[in-house]
Design goal:
elongated, Immunoglobulin-like, about 150 residues, alpha+beta, 2 domains, 3-stranded antiparallel beta sheet, 5-stranded antiparallel beta sheet
């Protein structure tokens, strides 16, 4: 009788080790898969940013109110909006404007209040996308426009 009980114990031990190994593999797979999926969405946003270029082409300020004209280059996906950054060398004002800017389109923001003193002397425009998690991902600015 002792021999059969010892054999049964070895089988149970082997099954427990196999089950623990499968659980560990499952946990590791879930963690690695989540990391890879998160990296894929970041890579997707970065690829979209490389294809989109928006630059300020003209800026005129009268006191703390400015008119900003910007143009988007050809190519890239639809964007979710832009970020306009006006600076006077000491402080800056950043404003978001939602909505797509079509490829090769030129738009002007009129009566844009900056709240900056002294008057701004440079402008930057950057596109942004909303990722799958609903978080705004801002691309790099399209270069500084000094006026």
């Amino acid at each position: 009788m002792m021999i059969s009980k010892k054999g049964l114990s070895d089988v149970v031990t082997t099954l427990i080790i196999i089950l623990l190994s499968l659980v560990a593999i499952g946990i590791i797979w879930v963690v690695v898969n989540n990391i890879l999926q998160g990296g894929a969405s970041t890579t997707d946003i970065n690829a979209k940013c490389l294809e989109v270029s928006i630059k300020a082409t003209a800026v005129s300020c009268n006191g703390a109110v400015c008119n900003v004209t910007y143009k988007r280059s050809a190519g890239g996906d639809d964007i979710d909006g832009i970020v306009v950054i006006l600076s006077n060398g000491v402080a800056s004002n950043q404003t978001q404007i939602a909505g797509n800017v079509a490829s090769l389109a030129t738009k002007t923001l009129t009566d844009f209040a900056t709240g900056l003193s002294p008057v701004p002397n440079s402008a930057e425009i950057a596109a942004y996308f909303i990722d799958e998690a609903g978080v705004q991902q801002t691309c790099g600015a399209g270069g500084k426009f000094e006026f």
